[in-house]
Write a structure and sequence with these properties.
Blueprint (H helix, E strand, L loop, with lengths): L2 H12 L1 H19 L10 H20 L8 E3 L3 H10 L8 H12 L3 H10 L1 H15 L7 E4 L2 E4 L1 H4 L2 H9 L4 H26 L2 H26 L3 H10 L10 H12 L1 H9 L13 H6 L3 H33 L4 H9 L5 H5 L4 H13 L2 H8 L4 H5 L1 H7 L2
């Protein structure tokens, strides 16, 4: 087995819990459909979306003061296609775009050789982007929807399976609880579509976040190239100093990969300095590490500004969506049923959950009302303002 194949196996193993769950969902759905006692049927996500989307668009316009573009459509991709769309949501550098798309396709198909070939083709890009493949695809069964380029993508696989699975697990007589589960299912779709409709109006915030993430990924690619070019002796000494697990000498790429994942600023800086790094203007680095990797301080300093811009923009985007859902659907019976039957919670518990972006949006909304959304989209906060909304309110119009 080659070292590249080892990397492919490791990546596929990291998402095995998700792929096993996908198999279990598909198998259970098939068994339910064959159960002669389970005669009830649910409308498809598309059928329900066609009914509820126009009303939700109107509610978004009324609550935010911003109309949803007529160009926005709702699509229902199959599972492998949805995983490819997840790859499109990775804001890669321009010369890495094709690589990332091929990587996500190979992972979606569980194409071991295809992944190994990509490791061989460009190890630096694989190190920089394989974590996206792992994190995005390993969360696919908990992702109901995504927004990208004027399209809302609904996770048809999950949302068409969950209602009958939830009802079947409760046991017969199924008809007696059908309406309750159907209502919760409709509530899940209302929440999902509403969230993505709000994302569809966030144009300037979206672009701000995209630019920041591309720069972060460019920095991660640069760091990967630096680590891969290190002398074998330095790799060994630095690995020992960082107390990384020993890797046999016949796996030189794996030894450097361990260093990259440890020294990647998203891991190393945040874990060492803590979440307050999002408000720092300067970072310091262990002099022993800097002696062995002289370029690392410059890498970390370059990383600081774009990661903060990303954190502020992304948190605001997510906070606006959650704040909108909580307010628009607070009295919606289907949403209440979703929280109860699918999430095991209630509206009161849902509304008190702490979320920096939502709390920030709420603070601005208390002063500006529906104008909040135009203000936040045109004038994103800094990380300091996100943490202390009063700073933003003093600066913003």
């Amino acid at each position: 087995m080659t070292e590249q194949e080892e990397f492919a196996d490791a990546l596929l193993d990291q998402i095995s819990v998700e792929t096993n769950e996908e198999h279990d969902i598909a198998t259970l759905s098939s068994r339910i459909m064959e159960d002669p006692d389970f005669k009830v049927r649910f409308d498809s996500p598309k059928q329900i979306s066609d009914q509820i989307a126009p009303g939700l668009k109107q509610k978004v316009a009324e609550f935010t003061g911003i109309s949803v573009s007529s160009d926005v459509t709702i699509e229902f991709p199959e599972l492998d296609e949805l995983k490819g769309i997840k790859g499109k949501k990775v804001f890669a550098t321009s010369d890495a775009r094709e690589f990332v798309d091929r990587l996500f396709l190979a992972v979606a198909k569980q194409n071991r050789q295809g992944i190994a070939d990509l490791v061989k083709q460009d190890t630096a890009k694989f190190l920089a982007y394989s974590t996206y493949a792992k994190s995005y695809i390993s969360k696919i069964s908990t992702t109901y929807g995504d927004y990208l380029d004027s399209k809302i993508y609904i996770n048809n696989f999950v949302l068409s399976s969950y209602p009958q699975i939830v009802l079947h697990k409760q046991g017969p007589p199924y008809e007696s609880r059908y309406e309750m589960i159907k209502s919760g299912y409709v509530g899940a779709l209302k929440m999902t579509i509403l969230e993505e409709l709000v994302h569809s109006i966030q144009n300037n915030l979206y672009e701000e976040n995209k630019r920041a993430v591309i720069e972060v990924n460019r920095i991660n690619e640069d760091l990967a190239k630096i680590i891969l070019a290190l002398d074998d002796g330095i790799v060994t000494r630095l690995s020992d100093y960082l107390q990384l697990p020993a890797v046999p000498d016949e796996f030189p790429i794996a030894k450097r990969a361990n260093l990259f994942f440890m020294l990647n600023p998203d891991n190393f800086i945040v874990n060492v300095l803590g979440p307050d790094v999002m408000t720092f203007t300067k970072v310091e680095i262990d002099p022993t590490i800097q002696q062995m990797v002289p370029q690392i301080l410059e890498i970390y300093q370059r990383w600081l500004l774009p990661i903060q811009r990303h954190h502020a923009a992304f948190s605001t985007m997510e906070g606006m969506a959650e704040f909108s859902v909580q307010n628009i659907l607070k009295d919606d019976e289907d949403f209440h049923q979703y929280l109860m039957t699918f999430m095991g919670t209630d509206i009161s518990s849902y509304q008190v959950r702490k979320n920096m972006g939502k709390d920030f949006t709420e603070a601005v909304f208390a002063k500006h009302g529906k104008e909040t959304f135009q203000i936040l989209i045109k004038n994103p906060p800094t990380t300091r303002e996100l943490k202390d909304p009063q700073l933003y309110l003093k600066r913003a119009p």
